[in-house]
Fold:
Amino acid sequence: MVWLRIALALSLAACVDAGDENEREIDLASADSTPADAGKADAPGWETAPTLHANTRQFDLADAGTRRVHSLWVAGSNTNRVALDIAARANDGDSVRIAVLGPAVGGVRPVLAADGYTVRKQEVAVSLEVATPGEHLVVVGSHRLATPTTYELSATCPDDTCGVSRVDALATPKDFALVGDGQRIIHMILGDMLIGSGDIEVELWRSPPMQWWNATKVATSQASGSQVNAIAPFPAVRWGDDLRLVVREAGDGGRILDTGVTTRFLPIPTNFVRLDAILYGDIASLQIAGAVGFFEGQADLRLRSETRHIELAATTIHADRPGMVGNGFNAFDATFLPDLAVAPHDGELLSVGTVDGNGTVRRLGCFEYCNNLSGMSPCTGGPRSCP
Structure:
């Protein structure tokens, strides 16, 4: 009986301590919610960061003395709450803190949850049930904003309360989905929060696959009710290009509501690879993008030397982004890391392929290896005919 009383006392103390700790976190985070919040994107030390989407990972950097502010659209209500787990992890040696702010009321955003304010941490996490519809903010920085920090941020739905339309500015498509049809139309549906909220438009920003820094705007389309349809112009948008869908208020100077959902343009779902847009890294690494059929949430890819008839590297791609399907065609960004003992040489003929259910490697295409970082090699690279 004595042990039972001791155990119960310790349990109650732990609950009180945990509650007190949460209160201290929120009290310290209250500095991240002031009457000036409506214009925080322009305030010193406050920086607008990429929009946070449900069930994705966002990588970012906050300088010392700086808060990074990620928008997160949630359609919660008192009678139908949305459960979310929000977490951040800093690189080794860095610290991180987060505060989740609710929609503004009277110019002030309430602090709904916080972690990493009282004690220096490398990993932080909060769980909450969102009961208010609107734009929430996830504010990220280092502990006491004392140092720069590089971090990974995520917002995960632990159950089915999110659906496809209750979190994010766009209900469809989601991050890394294949988009387009035979008429080159990109079909989109607004998330619950933006339906009926005013004139909304979506911009299409096109870039070669994996090259977001080379994006250019190619089209703008206005929402009609919950739907937005935009045409990917030819020849500006090619098969396998990345299309970033940016949601904003309509008109000149309209506020950006979502900095962009990355998708891949492929009007006919099929095995496809962009061998004209390979990214070469240091030594022998290379990145190749395309689309391929997935089975049970994954696809196995192989890099081979057709010149030497050997396998150089292998990688497995998982359907771990919300726009991907477990069985069917998905976009892929594959990184191959050949061992230095078999590293290819400029001018060598390589192929990339996928492994089918029988273990057979089926080539997607061949290309000339040309890692000409010095600019001194005569190779040109690009697609080549397979033998």
Q: What stands out?
A: Confidence is low (pLDDT under 50) at residues 1-18.
